[in-house]
Amino acid sequence: MKKTSVLFFLFWVFSQGVFGQASVGYFPWSGLLSVSTNPRYAVWLDTRFQTNSLFSSLSVDLLPMINLKRGEIVQVYAGGGLRVNPLYRIADPDAALITVDGYSLNAGVRISPFAQNRGIQLAFELNPYVKDDFASGVLKSHLGLVYAFRGRKKE
What we know:
By secondary structure, the chain is mainly beta. It contains one helix and eight strands, in the order αββββββββ.
């Protein structure tokens, strides 16, 4: 992946959060911070950042998602993903610019329990993950709190 492609991707994710509808979430038992494009779209992108890791082993998950069901209260989604480590070169100067750590599948549900504010959501996910060499894997589960920003309604 070229350096300009990575920079363009990061700018695109940032602009979606600032100028468009997006969501942010935290999965405390997994130590993950989530930033995504608008999760109400049929297809959306979620990025996950580890918050309980050494700086040189900070991994980022890039997860394109597809909504299977989008109701006012319940949202069911699935997708695949790629875990990359953009900072691995700190520990190993001979490593690739972006190191691929592994691959994952995601299946999840977001529930909006409060009628007064549907932006507050509880998220539960199952996440089978396999290392890049396919030698080992693990089934992860994530439970967290998400806030989905909504655009202003046009009058």
